[in-house]
């Protein structure tokens, strides 16, 4: 039995996370009329039902059969920590022994949900708490969607970012299904502009994502010097950042889909003008923006946060050289909910 399996559900299919074509295949396999798939979509994604019995426009026989072969797949979080700044961190159980964290970030008229796609992560970025715990399994599309649907603040959400635990491009099939559920008319029907998916730069998967999805893309860059990036991001060996950038230059970023780069600021490592100049040179010809992120230290980490003055100087240099550069506000640091601190710890 794998990490993501649970004894009660081994023989049943989770309906949550299934796309319209997948539900059409299920309906066909069970001898349901084709329109039953659209009815199931409406109940799952428009009404957000958590019980098959409530799908009242399906016949009683169809509901009984669905109950035999499937479950909705909704699961409530087992813990919620609340930061002094209003950020909330939810803990979701995955299978028998796994947990992932999901962060709700309210900010005036915006409310962003940072969701996870894996238990742990394979990428091993030196500065990331998630990366240091290793990889324990991919989440299904249903387990990802459940993070969105099962928090009390669902109706207030304005944006979704795939920037929690895990590397989204390493679980791309599930990510594409979730993005379809969020944006297609048979799902939530959101604008793709409300969703951002991050990556450390897995080129083949990144190209497929760009080709098949209209949501925003954020690339974790953190250092534009090849040797220095390799020191903190092992993925640099397989997919050098210059190759990632050359790939991105093959696409048009002047429309509604936004390309951004994440750049965590480390004291004495990547926060001086030489690094800013190297970043400007590396991004030449790309219609993009850079989001600076304060490093959030964790116990045992050898890294320190860059000083406010060096961050301000770095930001000013990029803006003065034609690259839109913003500083991401640090939220939820007191509950380990800030960037790079998610560990999926069971604190019950």
- Percent helix, as a range, is 25-40%
- Distinct helical segment count: 12
The average pLDDT value, as a whole number, equals: 93
Shape: elongated
Based on DSSP secondary structure assignment, what is the total number of beta strands?
Answer: 14
CA distance, first residue to last residue: 24 Å
Relative strand content: 15-25%
Description:
With 348 residues, the chain is an alpha/beta fold. The chain is 31% helix and 20% strand. The chain is built from 12 helices and 14 strands. Strands 3-4-5-6-9-10-11-12-13-14 form a 10-stranded mixed β-sheet, with helices on one face. The chain has a two-stranded parallel ribbon with strand order 1-2. It has a two-stranded antiparallel ribbon with strand order 7-8. The chain is elongated. Mean pLDDT is 93; it is low at 5-9.
Notable characteristics:
348 residues; alpha/beta; ten-stranded mixed beta sheet; two-stranded parallel sheet; elongated
Q: What's the layout of helices and strands?
A:
Elements: E1 13-14, H1 20-29, H2 35-46, H3 60-69, E2 70-71, E3 79-82, E4 88-94, E5 98-107, E6 110-114, E7 118-120, H4 129-132, E8 135-138, H5 141-149, E9 159-162, H6 172-183, E10 195-199, H7 203-212, E11 216-220, H8 226-232, H9 235-238, H10 241-248, E12 259-265, H11 273-282, E13 289-294, H12 308-320, E14 324-327
Parallel strand pairs: 1-2, 6-9, 9-10, 10-11, 11-12, 12-13, 13-14
Antiparallel strand pairs: 3-4, 4-5, 5-6, 7-8
Helix pairs in contact: 1-2, 5-6, 11-12
């Amino acid at each position: 039995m794998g990490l993501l399996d649970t004894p009660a559900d081994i023989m049943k299919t989770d309906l949550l996370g299934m796309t319209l074509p997948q539900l059409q295949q299920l309906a066909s396999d069970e001898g349901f009329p084709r329109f039953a798939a659209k009815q199931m979509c409406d109940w799952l994604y428009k009404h957000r039902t958590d019980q098959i019995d409530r799908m009242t426009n399906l016949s009683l026989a169809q509901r009984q059969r669905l109950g035999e072969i499937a479950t909705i797949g909704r699961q409530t979080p087992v813990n919620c920590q609340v930061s002094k700044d209003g950020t909330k961190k939810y803990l979701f159980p995955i299978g028998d022994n796994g947990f992932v964290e999901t962060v709700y970030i309210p900010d005036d008229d915006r409310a962003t949900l940072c969701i996870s796609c894996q238990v742990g992560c394979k990428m091993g970025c030196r500065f990331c708490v998630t990366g240091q715990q290793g990889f324990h399994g991919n989440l299904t599309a249903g387990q990802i969607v459940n993070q969105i649907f099962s928090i009390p603040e669902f109706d207030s959400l304005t944006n979704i970012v795939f920037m929690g635990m895990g590397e989204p491009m390493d679980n791309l099939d599930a990510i594409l299904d979730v993005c379809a559920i969020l944006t297609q008319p048979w799902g939530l029907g959101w604008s793709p502009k409300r969703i951002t998916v991050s990556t450390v730069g897995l080129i083949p998967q990144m190209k497929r994502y760009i080709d098949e999805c209209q949501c925003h893309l954020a690339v974790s860059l953190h250092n534009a010097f090849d040797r220095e990036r390799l020191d903190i991001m092992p993925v640099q060996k397989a997919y050098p950042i210059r190759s990632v950038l050359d790939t991105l230059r093959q696409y048009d970023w002047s429309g509604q889909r936004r390309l951004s780069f994440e750049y965590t600021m480390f004291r004495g490592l990547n926060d001086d003008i030489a690094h800013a100049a190297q970043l400007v040179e590396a991004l030449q010809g790309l219609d993009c923006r850079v989001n600076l992120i304060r490093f959030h230290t964790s116990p045992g980490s050898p890294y320190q946060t860059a000083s406010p003055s060096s961050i301000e100087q770095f930001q000013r240099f990029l803006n003065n050289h034609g690259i839109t550069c913003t500083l991401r506000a640090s939220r939820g640091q007191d509950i380990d909910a800030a960037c790079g601190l998610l560990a999926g710890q069971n604190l019950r």
